[in-house]
Amino acid sequence: MARLDDAALDAIFREARSFNHYLDRPVGDDDLRAVWELMKWGPTSANQLPARLVWVRTPEGKEALAACASDSNADKIRAAPVTVIIGMDTEFHDELPWLFPHADAKAWFDGNAELRRESAMRNSTLQGAYLIVAARMLGLGVGPMSGFDQGAVDKAFFTATPSVHANFIATLGHGDPASLHPRLPRPAFDRFNRLA
Amino acid sequence: MARLDDAALDAIFREARSFNHYLDRPVGDDDLRAVWELMKWGPTSANQLPARLVWVRTPEGKEALAACASDSNADKIRAAPVTVIIGMDTEFHDELPWLFPHADAKAWFDGNAELRRESAMRNSTLQGAYLIVAARMLGLGVGPMSGFDQGAVDKAFFTATPSVHANFIATLGHGDPASLHPRLPRPAFDRFNRLA
User: Fold this and answer.
1) What is the chain B residue with the closest CA to A128?
2) Which value does ipTM take for this structure?
3) Which of helix, strand or coil describes residue A56?
4) Is the pTM of this model over 0.95?
5) Which of A110, A130, B10, B63 could make an SS bond with A42 (beta carbons 3.0 to 4.6 A apart)?
6) What is the DSSP string of chain B?
């Protein structure tokens, strides 16, 4: 496989930034579907795909979500064109017979709620990262956030599916470069890496 | 921001595959450093960067790691040029004074081991996904795996840093396309997504 060109490396990682403010330019439902059509290909363990996504873009939806967030995040949710809730289904194993037909993968998780919760957390988070990367590839800016009341989001958005719990949320839009602050530091390889 | 071209979308998501077998072609330490130099820019909450990575490429390292894995994964570890352990530091907050100098973010986590564990798990997993994407951007194949004994890996690789725990592992190399099986299914938008 060939290395991608510098433009791709810059757009996804080297020059990419998280956004708190967006340009006054709409994001259509087709854009959100396009994000899913890319991110869905990212790998999860035994093809679990435990993420359950709610793309919030109506005024009522934004108010309901903002009410669950810290003050500064509530303002960001109200102002952003879209905020997506990355939920995780702790009963994802019920879908494995068709998502992973090679083996009885459902049986690996039956009766083991702790393993399901850890696996749902790990794999829905991987999917959340794929969402961030996919949105950037399509030219969208992303603002991931953890500052919200998970139980309140579950109550507001997942009462019909009680096995689903909020993992994290992210605003989406056309990022406003004028709103960016200087970048936070990143360490060189040797600080957090070891060769063995 | 512009949409990236189809070659990038294909290489990272649409045509990308997880690999179990690699070509007989070396992966140098410079390649591993290049993966870090890209993935380090991916966002984590309050710039936590809790991942601690061990890149295993010596015969002794591979044997030590293979001894902690399920039989089929042990064979993959022995055969792959490199296997990386994505560890997570549950005391990542000690680094926040320089990683996130805007606020006393360390204080948010002092004395709250449960919050630290959840946050280390979420954010090190995001970094693991960035690793997968970054490696693919550089032309490498990746084989992420969860089938191993976390406690045994901690004992074999993280005794000097007892706050670090294995999250998941991934083989790396130049993927052998001839070894691939047909792709597992991915659902259309409406199955796991909702507009609100």
Assistant:
1) B126
2) 0.98
3) strand
4) yes
5) A130
6) -PPPPHHHHIIIIIS--B-S-B-S----HHHHHHHHHHHTTS--GGG---EEEEEE-SHHHHHHHHTTB-HHHHHHHHHSSEEEEEEEETTGGGGHHHHSTTTTHHHHHTT-HHHHHHHHHHHHHHHHHHHHHHHHHTT-EEEEE--B-HHHHHHHH-TTSTTEEEEEEEEEE-B-GGGPPPPPP---HHHHEEE-
- Select the residue from A9, A10, A131 to test the B interface by mutation, using most B Cβ atoms within 10 A: A9
pLDDT tens per residue across span B134-190: 999 999 999 999 999 999 999 999 999 999 999 999 999 999 999 999 999 999 999
Contacting residues of B for A57, CB less than 8 Å apart = 195-196
Q: List the single best residue of A6, A39, A41 to mutate versus B (max B Cβ within 10 A).
A: A41
- Say yes or no for a CB contact (<8 Å) between A29 and B195: yes
3-state secondary structure of A23: coil
* Residue A1 pLDDT: 78
| Subunit contact B99:A185, Cβ cutoff 8 A | yes
Q: Mind listing the pLDDT tens digit for each residue in A89-131?
A: 999 999 999 999 999 999 999 999 999 999 999 999 999 999 9
Check CB contact of A126 with chain B, cutoff 8 Å: yes
Residue A15 clears pLDDT 90, i.e. is over it? yes
Name the minimum distance, in Å, from the CA of B89 to any CA of chain A. Answer: 10
Query: Do residues B143 and B20 lie in contact, with contact meaning Cβ atoms separated by under 8 Å?
Result: yes
Judge residue B102's burial from the number of C-beta atoms within 10 Å of its C-beta, 0-12 exposed, 13-18 middle, 19 or more buried. exposed
Residues lower than pLDDT 70 in chain B = none
Whether chain A has a CB inside 8 Å of the CB on B146: the answer is yes
Q: Do B33 and A189 touch (CB under 8 A)?
A: yes
A71–B contact, CB cutoff 8 A: no
Helix (H, G, I), strand (E, B) or coil at A70: coil
Interface residue A112 vs chain B (CB under 8 A): no
CB-nearest partner of A55 from B138, B145, B195: B195
